Amino acid sequence: MVPTMEKERMTKRPSPMLSANILSKMLFWWLNPLLTKGKENKLVVEDMFNILPEDGSAHLSIALERAWNKELKMAELRGSKPSFMKALFRAFPLSFATVGCIAFLEVHYAYTMCHYIQKSLIVLFGTYPFFFLFQQQVSLVIQTILLRGLIRYFSPESNMTQWEGYMYATGVSLMYLLSVVFHHLCFFKAGKLGMQVRIACCSMVYKKTLRLSQAGLSETTPGHIVNLISNDVNKFDKALLYINFAWIFPIVIIIVFVILWNIIGPSCLAGFALLLLLAPTNIGLGTLYGKLRTKTAVRTDKRIRIMSELISGMRAVKMYCWEKPFAAIISQLRREEIKYIRFTSYARGISASPTLFTTNIMMLSNIVAYIMGGNTLTPESVFTMLALYNSTWFLTNSALPLAIQHGSEAKVTIRRIQNFLLLDELDRGDTGASSSAAVGILVNNITAYWNMRLGPTLKDIKFELLGNELVAVIGPVGAGKSSLLMAILKELPVTSGRIHTRGSIAYVPQQPWVYSASLRQNVLFGKEFNQKRYWDVIQACALNKDIEDLPHGDHTLVGERGVNLSGGQKARVCLARALYFDADVYLLDDPLNAVDTVVGKHIFERCINGFLKGKPRILVTHQLQYIQAADKILVLKKGETVGLGTYPELTAAGIDFVSLVTHYNKHAEEDDTPELPALNSPRIESSAKHFRKKPSSAMGKPTAETNGRSLDLTEKKVDQPEEMRSEGTIGWRVYMAFLSACGGPPAIISIALFNISCAVVLASSDWWLAHWSNQEEERMNMLSQTAVDGTNEATKGNMASHDIMHGIYIYLGLVSGLVVLSIGRHMSFYALCVNASQKLHDKMFDSVVRAPIYLFDNNPVGRILNRFSKDVGQIDDFLPAIFDDVLRNLSIKILGVIVIVVIVIPWILIPTVLLLALFIYINHFYLATSRDIKRLEGTTRSPVISHLSATLQGLSTVRAFNAGDEFSSEFDNHQDTHTRAWFLFLSLSRWLGTRLDLISAAFTISVCFICVIAKENLSLTAGLAGLVVTYSISLLFSFQWGVRQSAELENQMTSVERVMEYSQLEPEAALETDAKPPSDWPQHGAITGKQVSFHYGDFGPLVLRHLDFDIKPKEKVGIVGRTGAGKSSFVNMLFRMVELGGTVTIDGVDISKIGLHELRGNISIIPQDPILFSGPIRRNLDPFNTFSDVHIWGALEQVQLKTMISSLPGQLQYVLSEDGSNLSVGQRQLLCLARAILKKNKILVLDEATANVDTRTDRLIQQTIREKFKECTVLTIAHRLHTIMDSDRVMVFGEGKIQEFDEPFILLQEKNSALCELVDQTGRHNGDMLRKMAQQAHMSKKRSWTQLL
What we know:
This protein is α/β, with parallel strands linked by helices. Helices cover 61% and strands 10% of the residues. The protein has a six-stranded mixed beta sheet with strand order 6-7-8-4-9-10, sandwiched between helices. It holds the Pfam family ABC_tran. It is found in: Membrane.
C-alpha cells in the first residue's frame, strides 16, 4: 500500500519479549505461541507482534539524523569531508567493541569470573553482542584443552581412572552448552543491530529525498534512490553479524598459537604460516568485493530506473509496440550488471573453497613438521591439533571471509549513502505565519536556470501578489509559466533577484498527481476529516457527480498515478486537495485545461473566485476567457515578461495576447461546452468493478444530498488489494525451477558428483589420521619393546622411515584431492547460480512485459518493481552463498560426521535416531511459521518501495503542501510494519538455531560418555575416540548452521517463488503470427465490428456488450458517453489490450487473427497525458531506428519543435529526464504528435490530446491533424463536446452498448436521443451553440457532396 496519509493501524499485540523472563529470552521461548499458531493457520499481518520501542523507524532515524548533523558541523570545523561511518558509530553503540576486548582479556585470565563480569556489563551497557562473542570463543578454546585430557584417557599408557574420564567428558559437554548460549545471544543482538542501522538509513535516505533541490535531483535518479533502499541497505544486516570477527580473529589465533606451542612446540609454526596467509588473501578479496559491488550497484541503479519508467508507462509501451526496444535496453543493462555479479561470484567461490580444506592443509603442515622434528605422532597430539583448528574453523573459513566480504560491501553502501546525503538540498527560505496581514508573494527581478547551458528559464521577472488578488499568468508553450511557480516553491533555483513568500502555500500541478489510495484520502492529504468543509470542497470542485458514479463513492481506490480516473477527474481531485488544505496562498498551474468549459466555468466562479475569494491566487491558464476577471495579468514569452497589468491596461498597450483573446472569444461559444459526465478511463469500468468491488456498506449513515442523490461522507477503512502470496511449503517445483535455470540435469549431476566426492575424500582424510596416529603409537610402542629385546637399530630406523613416509604420502594425496575438488566444486556452483539468476530475471521480464495491461492497472509500481529489485537482488547476492552453505554442511560435513561416528561406535545409533526424530519435528514445527513470516516480510517490503516511488512522482506537490513530515511518518509506519516481520524472522532463526545446537549438544554429550563406556567394552582406541569426539564437537557450528541455513534457504527461495509467480503470468496474444496482413494494410481504415464483447480479466463483467458498428474509411468519429459507459474500453478493444469476443475487422482483416504488433503498430494514438521516457529525444520518437534524421526533423518542423530542439545540446541526442520532465507539458504533447506523424498510419485515436496546451498550440495540433490525417480514419474520445460536433458521425456509449451512431446533426433532431440528452445537460445557451455547430458541419458536408455530384 502506498501513502494513505492515515496512521497505519498497529495490532494490539505487544511483543511478548517485553514481559519474558531471562531464560525465555535466552532460549526464545516467547516465540512458542506464535509457532503453534503458525503451524495450524496461515499467518497474516495482524498476527505479528508490535515492534519493540527501540526498533521504531522514527526513533532510530532521529538518533542517526542527530549524529549526522553533528558530524556535518564537526567536519566543517575540521575542514574535511563528513563521514557517514562516524555518524553511524555515534548513533549506535559500536564502541562497545573496546569493552568487549577488555572483557575478553578478563575472561581469558579469570574465566571463573564470567558470571559476575557478564552481570556487570549487562547493568552498564545492556546485553550487547561483543561480550557474548568473546565468551563463546574462549569457551571453545577451553573445551579443546579439556578434550586433550579426554583423549589421553584412551591412550594405552594412560593410568587415568574412569571417573576422571567422566569428568573430562562433563567438562567438554558444559563448554559445548556454554558456547551454544553465547553464540545465539551474540548473533541475535548483532542481527538486531544490523536491522536498526538499515531502518535508520532508509529513513534518512527518504527524508533526504524530500529535501533534495533540483541540482541534487539532477545528480541522482529515482532508480538510484530505490536501489539504495531496496538493495544497498540490506548489506548492513549481514555485515554487522560478522564484522566483529575481523578484530576478534587475531586475538583468538594468538591464544590458539600459544596452546599449540605448548603441545607440539615450534612445529605449529608451519600450520600457522598458512593460516596467516589467509588474512591478506581475504583482505585482498574484500577490496575486490568493494570494487565489484560499486560497479554492480551503478548498473543496478540504471536497470531499476528504466524498469520503474517501463512499469509506469506500460500502457504507452504496449500501444506504441515498444516492448522490443525496452527489452533490448533492459537486456543490455542486465548483461552489464551480470558481468560484475559473475566476477563477484567467482571471487566468492575462491573465498569459499578453503572452507573444506584449510584445516587439513594446516594439519598436514604441522604433522610433517612435527614428525620431521623427531617427534612421535600420537592420537592425543593429532586430535588436540585438529580440535584447536576446528575451534578456529568458523573464524578462519566463515567468519573472517564473511566479515571482510560483507564489511567491504557495507563500506560501499555507506559511501553511496554518504554521497547521497551530501547532495544539494532545497532552500525553502522563510515562510511567514498565516496570522500576518502581509500574506502574499513578492517576486523581485528574478532570473533562474533549469540548465545553465540552455540559457535562463526565467529572466528579470517582477510582480507582487497581495491581499485577495488573482494574478493570471499566460503565454505560449515553453514560456516559463510553470517554471515561475516552481521558482516560487523554491524548486527552481533563483540565481539573481529575490522571492519573498508570506503564509502557507497550496499548489495544484499542471500534471495532476494522485496516488494509490481512496479518493477521499487524496483530498484530505493527511488532514483531519471535517464533513462540512469536505462537502463544500467537493461541491466547489464539481466532484459530487463523479463520486456518485464511482463504485464505492469517495472510498473508491484509485490506482497508481490515479490510473482509475480521467484527466479531468484527477485535476479536480488535486484542486480539491488544495482547497481542503486551507492555505494562505494558492498556486494553480492550469487546472482548467483538463475540464470542459462549463465545468471550468463552475470551477472558476465557485472555486477560484468563490471558495478562494479573499485568498491571494496565481492562476496559470490557457483559457483566455477568464483573464478579464483577474486583478493582474502577467504575460510571459521565452521566460521574459511581455506585459504586466490589468486587462484594460494590457489591451490599451496592444500586448500580443489581445489577438489571441479576440480569436478565442470569437469562438468562445464553440468552446463553451461542458465536460461530459463520461470522463473515465477503462479501469473504472473494469478493475474498479471487477478487481476491487466490495459489498455495499449498510445504509443509514450520515450523507450529504445533491441532486436527489446521496454521498456517503462517513469514515471508512480502505484496504489496498493484497499482494499475491503463495501458501504452504516451498514446493520442489521451485527448487527444480532454480536448478533447471542453473543448467538442468547436467548441472544437477555435476553438483551431486562434486559434493559426494568432497564428502568421501574429506571423511577419508580424517579417518586416515585416526588410523595413522594409532598405527604410529602402536609402532612406537612396538619399537620400544623391540629395543628392550635388542633388535638392530638400523632395521628399526628403516622400518620407521618407511612407515612414516607412507602415511605422509597417503594423507598428502587425500588433502591434494580435496583441494582440487573443493575449488572445482565452488567455482562451478557459483557460476551455475549466476546463470540461474540471469535466466530467472530474463524470464520474469519477458513475462511481465507480455502481461495484460490490467496487471499494471491493479498493482502499484513499487509492488512490481520490488520483484525486480529486492527479489532479484536476493537471488543475485544471498541465495548462492546460502545454497552453498546447505550443500557443504549437510551433504559433506554433517552426513560424514554421523556415518563415521556410527561406524566407530554403533551404540551411537540409538541416541542418533532419537535426536534425528526430534530434529525432524522441530524443523517441521519451525518451517510452517518461518515460511509465512518470510513471505510477509516480502509483501510488507513492497509498500515501502511503493511509498518511495509515489513520493518521487509527486515530490513538488508534497513539498508545496509542507507534507514532508506526514509522508515521513507514513514511511516510518510502512517500515515499522516491515520491521515487525523482519524482527520475527530474525528471532525465529535464533529459536531454531538454539534448539538445533541443543540437539548437537545432546549428541556430543552422548558421544563423550559412550566413548568413556566403550573403552572397556569395545576396546576403543585413542585415535578412534579422538576422531568421533572431535567430529561430534564440530557439529556445534556445522549442524545448526547447515540446518538453519536449509531453513533460510527455503525462506530465500521465496524470492525465486515470487520471481516465478511473475514468470508464469498469462500473456497477451502473440505479437506476431503467421497469418500476417498485407504489407500495406490497412489501406483505407475501415473498421467493422460484429457482436463485439469485451471484459477485463477472465472472470470480469462485460464492459462492452454485443456491439455492431461500421466505421467507414477516412471517417472522423467522435466517441462520447457517461462514466463507465465503455468509450475508453472501445479504444482498448481496438488495441486488443485485452482479448475480445465477437469479430472486429479493419479493411477486411480480423484483428483477432493477427499479431498484436501487426495490429497496434498500424494504429496511432495521441494520449491525453504525454508519455516520454528518459533517454535521447530520437529514441523517444523512433526507438526502432526506422526513420532517418531527415524524416524526424521534418516531423518536428511540422509540430514547430525543430527550432527549440536544434538549440538543445546534442539536438536529437539530447537526453530527456524521467517522464520528460525537462520539457514543458505542451512540448511533450507536441512530441507525441510528432510520433504519430512519423508513423503515417491510416487510423488515428485521439484521447483529448489538446487538454494541456495553450490555445495557439491547440489550434496548431488541430490544424496538423486535419492536414496530415485528412486521408485517415480518426477516432476522438470527447472530453469536450465541441471537439466532436463537426465529426462525420458520433458514437454514443451507454452501459457498454452503442446507443446511437450517426451524424451529430441527425441525432440532435431526435429529442429523445442520448446525444440530445448530453447536449441538453450543458444548458440552454450551450445546447443551442452545439446544435448550431452540428448544423453548420452538416451543411458544409452537404455542399461538398453537391459539388462532387
